Amino acid sequence: MNVVLNIIWLVFCGVWMAIGYVVAGVVACILIITIPFGIASFRIARYALWPFGRTVVRKPTAGVMSAIGNVVWIIVAGIWLAIEHAVTGALLCLTIIGIPLGIASFKMIPISLTPLGREIVPAS
């Protein structure tokens, strides 16, 4: 079932969301200081392409620097990516088939706002 949902996700919204994360990652990699944001954005772009069967967990080693970085990320790019997920999720929920996809889009809002200090792992 995960494969079917991932294929539908990829066709309807995964590519566009991944492009948004890649653009944010490229912009973040322009400056040396913001390269960790770019790496996190590229990691989330892979997750945005194929989200079903994987989940996001907090890293136990994340500290104060991750929290400070997340505040900067929210201001610079996180809010726009979260809005993208919210709008896409609302549009996907307009159809019966799109409801699981819309829920998945809503579940990606927290990682779009605070990507540092989290990791993507298999759901099993």
Please characterize this protein's 3D structure.
The chain has 124 residues and is mainly α. The chain has one domain. The chain is 69% helix and 8% strand. The protein has 5 helices and 2 strands; from the N terminus they run ααβαααβ. It has helices spanning 2-28, 35-49, 64-92, 99-107, 109-113, and strands spanning 54-58, 118-122. It has a two-stranded antiparallel sheet with strand order 1-2. Helix 1 (2-28) crosses helix 3. The longest helix is centred in the middle third of the chain and has 29 residues, at 64-92. The radius of gyration is 14 Å and the shape is globular. The model has no long low-confidence stretch (mean pLDDT 89).
Any key phrases for this structure?
single chain; 124 residues; mainly alpha; two-stranded antiparallel sheet; 5 helices; globular
Main beta-sheet strand count, sense and barrel state: 2 strands, antiparallel
Give the termini separation.
14 Å
Radius of gyration: 14 Å
Helix content: 55-70%
Question: Helices, strands, pairings?
Answer:
Layout: H1 2-28, H2 35-49, E1 54-58, H3 64-92, H4 99-107, H5 109-113, E2 118-122
Antiparallel strand pairs: 1-2
Helix pairs in contact: 1-2, 1-3, 3-4
Give a summary of the structure in a few sentences.
With 124 residues, the protein is mainly alpha-helical. The protein is 69% helix and 8% strand.
